[in-house]
Design a protein that fits this description.
514 residues; alpha/beta; 5-stranded parallel sheet; 17 helices; 47% helix
């Protein structure tokens, strides 16, 4: 962001016909508390313009011929916020060709005829500087907007990068279920794995929905006691497909005593998963990756090392900067957007910790050391397992109408509710849903709000108007959680508002009238 304009940026650059005129004009401006700067020739004036100026004051005699063309080029090269005021001191008499050219070529120009009153000159300069001051304010505003947009872009890029990580174990678990066709008991571990990764993605998507927090430099942590071992285990689970695909050997030393911190388990998992992914990405196939955790004073110290490409001395400080990629490695090997380590540094510092990189040089591998303060408590919050179906209502009574223009979403939800005893009907649009409602006794309707044509809110109003519609339970399902949407949904007559992806325990609470 631009700093406050310097004194140089309020100077009045003088280029007069004679040195005597320059001295006189300078004296007048100084008495009026302005800051004049006499320029020996047009080249000198253009150099001073590049340093900073509040206005330019020119005698008519010096803007003829090549000087006019040079000044025109310089003014045309200004930034989009800048329109440097030009004051021309014209000779007495009829307008000359030079004056006419100035009036045609320059927008922010004031012409004062000589001889002039001092008050007229001072007034013109004050007006020019007020104009320039507004331009500097516009510059600050544009820079502020650019900075905010950059932070938003960086956040979106970070989320896009991070959303890919939980997709790897999800894809692996689905492939295992399809190929192995395991028993119900064996399948539980895959379902729990997928549930944890979905929960991880939901948290990241929620951050995307709250992108305005990032433009204000705020990321909200969900802080509670966290067991470091569990965080590292989850990070390894996220990164294992990448590590195994590259044929690396991964060794983990977590020490004897459990280390408990106060932090956000999901965010800390991101930290160590990114470090593991980074190690796997920059280590040639068949390399070695190590994770060592220990206690040092009142801090947990975690070192993630590799036998990879290493870092040059000049990269050790800049490696955590946004979009920095390790030099000397191919684009194919790098992948990503160069944002993973930036996220690591930001999240570690938000937890009151620090991270640093060390390397003996290119080809010598690298070690990233994370230091995090330990908590005083010793009762960590362990990762939540997915609720078993026994924890939900054993059955759903009545007819449930599921309406969503996404056919996969509608069909899968209807099938799931069917396994819990509901008689389900499915519609992929508002009109189709109304026809089903008129020919069936519907007890519960789960409606996607963001459908094309007749959206969920319009459909809810129509369903309420149907015979028996007042007794129907209406549940809105949407990806939008802002207050304005909540008010619109409530006004449409819905009984409950649930966010995508659907949390089945929340749905069951709603169905039980919670």
């Amino acid at each position: 962001m631009s700093e406050v304009p310097s004194e140089l940026e309020y100077r009045i650059l003088l280029r007069t016909a004679t040195s005597r005129d320059a001295m006189m004009a300078s004296a007048v401006l100084q008495r009026a508390q302005f800051d004049p700067a006499i320029c020996a020739d047009m080249a000198d004036l253009l150099r001073e313009m590049s340093v900073g100026a509040g206005a330019v004051m020119l005698a008519e005699e010096v803007i003829a011929g090549p000087a006019m063309a040079e000044l025109k080029v310089a003014l045309a090269s200004q930034g989009p916020w800048s329109d440097l005021p030009v004051i021309v001191l014209a000779r007495q008499g009829a307008d000359s060709r030079a004056i006419a050219d100035v009036m045609d070529e320059f927008a922010n120009v004031t012409v004062i005829e000589r001889p002039m009153r001092v008050a007229s000159l001072v007034s013109a300069v004050r007006t020019a500087l007020r104009s320039r001051r507004r331009q500097y304010e516009l510059r600050r505003l544009l820079d502020s907007l650019r900075d905010a947009d950059q932070r938003k872009t960086e956040f979106l890029a970070t989320l896009a990068h991070e959303l890919r990580n939980p997709l790897a174990p999800l894809s692996t678990a689905l492939s295992l279920l399809a190929r192995k066709k395991p028993s119900a008991e064996e399948s539980v571990k895959y379902y729990e794995l997928m549930g944890r990764q979905v929960e991880h993605m939901v948290r990241l998507v929620n951050d995307l929905m709250e992108v305005s927090r990032i433009t204000r430099g705020k990321i909200e942590l969900q802080v509670r006691p966290v067991l470091l071992d569990a965080v590292i285990d989850d990070a390894i689970e996220l990164s294992r497909p990448l590590v195994e695909r590259a044929g690396h050997t991964l060794s983990v030393e977590l020490g004897g005593e459990p280390l408990v911190m106060r932090g956000d388990a999901v965010r800390l998992t991101q930290v160590f998963s990114n470090l593991l992914n980074n190690a796997a990405k920059y280590t040639p196939s068949g390399g070695r990756i190590t994770v060592v955790a220990r206690q040092l004073d009142r801090h947990a110290v975690v070192e993630v090392g590799d036998t990879g490409t290493g870092l040059s001395p000049d990269m050790l400080k800049s490696i955590f900067d946004m979009f920095v990629q390790v030099s000397g490695t191919s684009k194919a090997a790098q992948g990503g957007l160069g944002i993973g380590l930036t996220l690591v540094k930001s999240l570690v510092e938000l937890h009151g910790g620090s991270v640093e990189a060390a390397s003996e040089g290119l080809g010598e591998g690298a070690t990233f050391t994370v230091r995090l303060p330990l908590a005083k408590t010793t009762s960590p919050a362990r990762p939540r397992a997915i609720a078993s179906q026994d924890g939900w209502a054993p059955s759903i009574e009545g007819v449930v109408l599921v309406v969503d223009d996404n056919r996969d979403a509608a069909d899968s939800l209807a099938e799931l509710l069917g396994t819990m005893g509901a008689a389900t009907l499915v519609a992929y649009g508002g009109e189709e849903a109304l026809q089903l409602a008129r020919s069936n006794d519907i007890d519960i309707a789960v409606l996607d709000v963001g459908m094309p044509g007749m959206d969920g809110c319009d459909l809810a109003r129509h369903l309420r108007a149907e015979p028996g519609g007042a007794q129907m339970m209406l549940i809105a399902l949407t990806g939008w959680g802002q207050q304005g949407y909540k008010e619109r949904i409530a006004a449409a007559g819905f009984d409950h508002h649930l966010l995508k992806p659907l949390s089945l325990p929340e749905l069951m609470t709603a169905l039980r009238g919670g």
